[in-house]
Design a protein that fits this description.
The structure is a single chain. The protein is an all-alpha fold. Helices cover 75% and strands 0% of the residues. The chain has 2 domains: 11-55; 56-93. It is built from 3 helices and no strands.
């Protein structure tokens, strides 16, 4: 955690600095966690609005997942799914 050996006590100034730095990290993380919660709530609201206008939320989530993939990754995944569906006789050759 620290480069200071355990048998050497911190000076008052160093301890004060470490305490303030720790407090700063904690407060920044707390602010970011609150922002993350706010954004998460906003996303839920958008999904609820989409559902209210008749869109299928599961389909929207699937589209979002697909859009995160790069084109090659997506094409490979689609080819594998098609191969499996053909093997199961669910789609024609």
């Amino acid at each position: 955690m620290s480069d200071i050996p355990n048998d050497q006590p911190l000076s008052d100034a160093a301890a004060g600095f470490a305490k303030e730095q720790l407090k700063s990290f904690i407060e920044r993380i707390e602010r970011l966690e609150e922002e993350k919660k706010t954004i998460s709530d906003d996303i839920k609201d958008v999904f609820a609005e989409a559902k209210g206008t008749g869109f299928d939320v599961k389909a929207l989530r699937e589209i979002l997942k697909i859009r995160k993939q790069d084109a090659d990754q997506r094409a490979e995944h689609e080819a594998i799914v098609d191969l499996y569906l053909q093997a199961l006789g669910m789609i024609g050759n």
